[in-house]
What does this fold into?
Amino acid sequence: MVDAMAASGVEDERVGGEVRGEEEDDDVPQLSAAAMEALREFLAEQQRPEEQDETGGGEGGVELVPEDWRLSQFWYDERTARALVEEVVRLVSPSGSGSAAGAVACIACPTLYAYLKKTDPGVPAQLLEYDERFGQYGGDFTFYDYNRPEELPPAMKHAYRVVVADPPYLSKECLEKVAKTVSFLAQPEGSFLLLLTGEVQKDRALELLNVRPCGFRPRHSNKLGNEFRLFTNYDPADRLGGWDQSDGASI
Ligand SMILES: C[S@@+](CC[C@H](N)C(=O)[O-])C[C@H]1O[C@@H](n2cnc3c(N)ncnc32)[C@H](O)[C@@H]1O
It folds into this structure.
């Protein structure tokens, strides 16, 4: 639909602000100014596929490929990415206990992976992603389709101390399949799990993954309408706003 509009010249007429007055055909559907602006931004993004986005812009931001909304791609804003990285680094770093540092699996959350490697390149991390543009991360990239939740290299089985997942869709089917992937990756003795998804998945997330919502509110660079939450399978206490007691979370 987007391409058809662009090809027909409708976009040029509206964005250019040309007023056709009485010649305007009232029956022709028209987009609101906000929708037209979103469309214009989308088309501009599509016209520069080889360029990279800088999430967070300023010093310390990371380079990411442009969002492809057809793949349900909405990147975290810098505040969100940094809060998640801080937590993940804390979880994988042995604090004088003598235990080996853990590895991190990032399921469909490339922004987290990019910020993590920028912040602490030494943390072992694997990005599982459907978008092959992230092949730029070399051996840290594993192609992943949630429809084949366990079609992964055997070496990844039960290998991750921290698993972070941000499923592409809000459906029951998608969360069930991602839950299978989480079980595949997590260590039998228990791993830290962070799930980012819509508030609407709260009951299902508890049932499938034993995760509860935190007070911290994750956000995207390009705002989404749905209520977005961070869920964890452990109580982060004074970090990330703790488990949100107003949601009935209890230990
Ligand atoms: C909601 S986004 C999460 C991105 C995250 N907010 C970030 O900033 O890193 C969902 C991710 O799922 C990926 N995805 C799309 N289709 C997929 C599929 N069939 N299997 C697995 N991942 C998929 C997208 O490429 C996208 O990165």
Notes: Confidence is low (pLDDT under 50) at residues 1-24. DSSP finds seven helices and nine strands in the chain. Residues 71-76, 108-112, 129-131, 144-146, 166, 168 surround S-adenosylmethionine (CB under 6 Å).
